[in-house]
Structures are given as structure tokens and as C-alpha cells.
Write a structure and sequence with these properties.
Layout (H helix, E strand, L loop, with lengths): L1 E9 L2 E9 L5 E5 L6 H8 L8 E2 L8 E4 L10 H11 L6 H10 L15 H15 L3 E5 L7 H13 L4 E5 L3 H7 L2 E6 L2 E7 H7 L3 H15 L1
Parallel strand pairs: 3-7, 3-8, 5-6, 6-7
Antiparallel strand pairs: 1-2, 1-4, 8-9
Length: 224
């Protein structure tokens, strides 16, 4: 996926990215302070914010999925919410995989429950399961692990690390998680791409003052 000359204005926020290559087969992360444009960039990739700057290189929109921090759930059961993306893609469910994921995220007993009655963490699990079942080419996780219990976070981290099929894009302020999972980091600030490259090179060895200051603040927060 290649992004060229992306210029967006959303309310008072402006995004200007000249060139960004999100290579297939790697685990990527969008990192930066609040308001830097990480979620805006994800929405541009998904065409939630229409633009002509994202080259999907032959893929279609159904090959890309987004698991947001606050997922949209249908007024329906957990199971029907999970199966809906497969239905609109005319794909059959892998029952063994479905059963395994429901069990993994402790939702088996809640599969017939009204989805919007779930806790925020459980709703994130529903969103993740329906993405995983579709096996998209690109999967964007926008702070979608933030409300999960530690056991579920560990399990989804293992899924991400071991997945050779999907190209993952993680948006997270959990830098330990980014360093543990991601191969590539794209650092954003005020709507601009500051630096892209290998995760440790960008986060731990960058010469850029903006990134150095950001990382210094993150270290202080961790120590506190």
C-alpha cells in the first residue's frame, strides 16, 4: 500500500503526508502524540475520509479492515455481529476457528447475548473476532486492545506476532507493545510523517528531536 501527496483538512486539523509505503508482510505501527493524525490516517486508508492518495495496489476495500477503540455494533446478538462481515463478503465461516476464538476470548457463553449490552472490553473482543475471521490483507488496530484484560492482550499479541498472512497496522500508545510486536514504525506529529523505519531505529535511536522528546516523556510516564 502506497500513500502519496495525502492532503486532508478535518475541521481545523490538517494532514500533509508526501510519501508513505506500508509494505505487505510486516507488522506496522502508527505512533505519535495525541492529535498527531494516527486515527485520521487510518480513516483515510479505509476511505472513511474520501481521498485519492491511497494506492491499494490492486486490492479492494474489503481486503482492509479496521478494529477501532469504540467499535460499531449492530443492534443484534454477539454471534450475528461476528458473522455479518463474512455475510456481506459472501464467505463461509470456519466453524472450528469461530469456536476457538469465542473460547479464547471467553465469549462462548455470551454468543447469543445482545451485543451492545457487553462491557467495552467485550465489545472490543467482538470487533477483533469478526476481523480475524475475515483474514483481511491489511488489519488496522486503532487502540482496540486498550480495554482488554491482560490475558486477552497477551493472546492477541501472540496472534499478531505469529500471523504470516495479514499485514497488521497497530495504533497504540503502549510503546512496550509496539516494540514487542511491530517491525516498522511510522511516527506522526501534527498531521505530518516525521520518520519511518525499523521499530527500534525510530523509537530508540532516532536523531529527530520531536521523537526524542516524545520518547523521553514516555519514559517518565512509565517510571511514574
Amino acid at each position: 500500500m502506497k500513500i502519496s501527496n495525502l492532503k486532508l483538512e478535518v475541521s481545523e486539523f490538517k494532514m500533509d503526508i508526501a510519501d508513505l509505503n506500508i509494505e505487505r508482510g510486516f507488522k506496522h505501527a502508527f505512533v505519535g502524540p495525541n492529535g498527531s493524525g494516527k486515527s485520521t490516517l487510518a480513516k483515510a486508508i479505509m476511505q472513511i475520509i474520501p481521498n485519492h492518495s491511497v494506492d491499494l495496489e490492486g486490492l479492494s476495500s474489503i481486503d482492509i479492515m479496521l478494529a477501532p477503540q469504540r467499535p460499531y455494533l449492530l443492534h443484534d446478538t454477539v454471534m450475528n455481529n461476528i458473522l455479518y462481515p463474512l455475510k456481506i463478503r459472501n464467505r463461509k465461516v470456519n466453524n472450528d476457528e469461530l469456536i476457538s476464538l469465542l473460547d479464547m476470548f471467553n465469549l462462548t457463553d455470551k454468543k447469543n447475548q445482545y451485543a451492545r449490552s457487553l462491557s467495552s472490553g467485550e465489545q472490543q473482543k467482538v470487533s477483533l473476532i469478526r476481523c480475524l475471521l475475515c483474514h483481511p490483507v491489511y488489519l488496522i488496530i486503532d487502540e482496540a486492545l486498550s480495554n482488554l484484560d491482560s490475558e486477552s492482550v497477551m493472546r492477541i499479541e501472540e496472534i499478531i506476532k505469529n500471523d504470516k498472512e495479514t499485514t497488521w497496522i497497530l495504533i497504540s500508545h503502549q510503546l512496550t507493545q509496539v516494540l514487542n510486536i511491530c517491525d516498522k514504525v511510522h511516527f506522526l506529529d501534527k498531521g505530518k510523517l516525521i520518520e519511518s523505519g525499523d521499530t527500534e531505529e525510530v523509537l530508540l535511536k532516532s536523531k529527530n528531536e520531536i521523537i526524542q522528546n516524545y520518547m523521553s516523556n514516555q519514559v517518565i510516564k512509565v517510571r511514574e
